[in-house]
Design a protein that fits this description.
With about 200 residues, the chain is of the alpha/beta class. It has seven helices and six strands. Helix 1 runs antiparallel to helix 2 and helix 3 runs parallel beside helix 6. It is globular. The two termini are about 25 Å apart.
């Protein structure tokens, strides 16, 4: 999957001002809904419903809120850089300023975990995060994401779990105690999407 196949310049929001996690997710959900013609309440319910299972913060100032939705036929994504970092209950307790939101069609759920793993690996790279934080425009942010070489996504569940393990390892060791939180994020996502 190429990032540009689900994310365009219009899906990138730089320097969003929010009051916290709920405010950020609400603004992002409303913007996605308006841009795609989806029902705002459906998008909000999907994102907040997933967040109730555990934070989608992955550490190092990044969160990847996501939901499987039955009413869409293709993935929808948004990249948001916040004006000020916010608490997102991430595994390393660092505030979040980069939020990659993804809505995935329930009918294609077998491809979801590999895609989530790929996005996670991309955003765990320190040079990607730094360049996104310095981007002056949406097209510059999109170029940062598209210039990274990523492996092709497999729809094989075993492969996707290996990819998630690589994502968990990241580009440096997590702070003490954070590994359990990241393990919980991936386990709850895996359990939620493979039990249906």
């Amino acid at each position: 999957m190429m990032i540009s196949s689900i994310l365009s310049e219009e899906d990138i929001w730089l320097d969003l001002v929010t009051k916290g996690k709920q405010s950020a997710l609400s603004k992002i959900a409303i913007r996605i809904a308006r841009r795609t013609g989806l029902d705002e309440q459906m998008v909000l319910r999907g994102l907040f419903g997933r967040e109730r299972f555990g934070s989608t913060g992955i550490g190092r100032g990044v969160a990847i809120p996501h939901a499987l939705l039955g009413m869409i036929s293709s993935p929808v994504a948004s990249l948001t850089r916040l004006a000020q970092p916010i608490d997102f209950d991430g595994p390393d307790d660092n505030p979040v300023d980069l939020i990659y939101t993804i809505l995935w069609p329930r009918s294609a759920s077998s491809a979801f975990l590999p895609a989530l793993s790929q996005i996670c690996r991309l955003l765990r790279a320190s040079q990607v995060r730094e360049r996104l934080r310095l981007a002056q425009s949406a097209d510059e942010a999109l170029a940062v994401l598209e210039t990274q070489l990523l492996p092709r996504i497999s729809t094989n569940l075993h492969t996707s779990l290996e990819g998630m393990e690589l994502c968990r390892l990241g580009d440096a060791a997590l702070p003490r105690g954070a590994r359990a939180a990241v393990d919980g994020l991936f386990q709850s996502t895996h359990d939620r999407y493979t039990s249906r």
